[in-house]
Amino acid sequence: VQLQASGGGLVQTGGSLKLSCADSGRTFSTYKMSWFRQAPGKEREFVAAITSNGGATDYTDSVKGRFTISRDNAKNTAYLKMNNLKPEDTAVYYCAATLAIWGSRRQRSMYKYWGQGTLVTVSS
Length: 124
Fold this sequence. Notes:
4-stranded antiparallel beta sheet; 7-stranded mixed beta sheet; mainly beta
């Protein structure tokens, strides 16, 4: 698994962005995928997760109703669509892959593979 995150940028409050996480490997469809983010001076935190077949998703409370995680296994790519962005969403966003059980999806330590991160900046 080799993850490449992209799609970050500068956007105004209320704007939208769509992040992508592409895997160059051949086992993408077997991994649960998640997005984490890390704001300056803060720890990396869970944002959203999706099961290997896309049948279930999970979101941290602060992004529910605004962010949507999805995946296209035929394209070996996971996505994070972010709407109604707020300044507090400013962070480096990382995608991550795991084979761990769904119950541990919010734990950073359960993720073996990480993308390089893409910066999202929301101006007020």
